[in-house]
Amino acid sequence: MHPKTSVNQFNTSAFKKYDPYDLARLSKLDILFRENLELRQERGYWKKQHSRAKERIEQLEKENRDLKGRIGYLEKKLYGRKTEKSATGNEKNEQEAGSAGKSNRPRGQQPGMPRHGRRSYDHLPVVEEIRDLEEKDKRCKRCGKPYILFPGTEDSEEVEIEVRAYKRRIKRLRYTPSCDCGQTSGIITAPPAAKLIPKGTLGISAWVWLLLDKFLYQRPTNRGIEALKGYDLDIPPGTVIGGFKRLSTVLQPILEAFAKKNLEEQHWHCDETRWLVFETAEGKQSFRWYLWLFKSPSSVIYILDPNRSAKVVNHHLGDVEEGILSVDRYSAYKAFIRRKDGRILLAYCWTHQRRDFLKLAISFPHLKVVAFQWVELIGELYHLNNIRVSRIKEREGFLEADKKLRAAGGCVEDGTKAGT
What we know:
The protein is α/β, with parallel strands linked by helices. Among the domains are: 199-263, no CATH class; 268-347, no CATH class; 349-420. It has 10 helices and 7 strands. The protein has helices spanning 20-79, 89-97, 204-216, 221-229, 237-263, 310-317, 331-337, 350-363, 368-390, 395-418, and strands at 174-175, 188-189, 267-276, 288-295, 300-305, 323-327, 344-348. Strand 6 (323-327), helix 7 and strand 7 form a beta-alpha-beta unit. Helix 6 (310-317) packs across helix 7 and helix 8 runs antiparallel to helix 9. It starts with 19 loop residues before the first helix and ends with a helix.
C-alpha cells in the first residue's frame, strides 16, 4: 500500500525565498499530488466494483447452470422414459440422460429376430367335439352308394372360454330311525353346505370372483357388478358391499397369521407410496393416504394409513429386536432405527443411488463422465449379484460369486471414502 499523502502539508509561506518560476513549479507539483490522490481513490473504487461484478457474474453463471440442469431434469421426467427395465449398457445410459426424442424403432416383432412360436395350452382340459357329414353327403353323388367310415379322425384344436352363472340347489337327504329303542327320535337330516356368510344367497365361487375382480384385477365394484349382468346375474350393490365388510372379519385371522410370520423374519424391504382414499378422516383435510409395504422372504404386508410418519413403521416393526431394512433414504426409517440402539440396520437401495447419479448427469452435463462411471460401477454390482443368485443351489459356486461381489462392494466403499 502506498502511504496516504495529503497536499495540506505543503505550506506555501515556507517557499517565499524562491522566485516566481520555482513557485509555479511547486504549484504544478501540488496539482499533480492532488490528481494522483484522486486517481488512487478512483482505482480503489473501480477495483472494488470490478471484484463485485466478477462475484455477481460467477453467481449468475452458477444459477444459469443450476437452472439448465433443472430444466433438463424436468424435461427428462416429463418426456423421457418412465422405466429402466430395458436400459442396459453405456448407450442406454446415455439415452437415459440425453434428449427425450422418440425412437425410430418400430414396435412389435423386429426383422431378423427369432419368433416366439405359438403358446402351449396342454394344461387345459379337453372337451372333444365330433363333426360328421350330413346324411345326404355320406353317399356318392353319382351312384348313390354310401361312403365307408375311414379309421381315425382329422383333428384340430381351438381354445374356448365358457363363463356362466348357475343356481346351486342343495338337496339334503333325510332319514328316519328304523328301530324302536328310542335312542333317536324324529328325522335326521344331512348337515348343510359350508357358507362364507350365513344365510347369504351367494356361494363361495361368487365371492371368490368378486374378491379377485376387485382386489387382484383392480376393477371397481360397480363395473364388476355390471359385467355379471352379461351372464344374467343381477346382484344388488348393497349385497356386495355389505358382504365385503362381513368378509373382512372372516379374513382377519389370516391377516394376523401373515403379520406374525412377517415379523419372525430378519430382513424386510420397505416402501411407501401415495394412495388416494376418498373418505373423510378426522384431522385430515385431503384424501391423500399412504400405502406401506413390508416384504420379507416369506410374506408381504400392506398397511393403508393416512400418515407417512415413523409411527407406521413402529406400529408394525416396533417389537422387532434386530434385523435389516432395505429402504430408500426416507427419514421415517432413520427415525425408527434410532430407538433400536443399532440393532436394526438400514440397507439403502442401490436403485435410488443409481438414479441420483443419472440425475446428476442430466442436471450438470460437465459431471456426466464422473456420474456414468458410478452408474457403470453400480451396474457391475447388479451383474455380480445376479450371478450369485443364480448359483444359490451350488455352495461352492455361490461362495465364489459372493466373494467377488463383496470385493466389488469394497471398491465402491473405497471410492466413496476417496471422494472419486
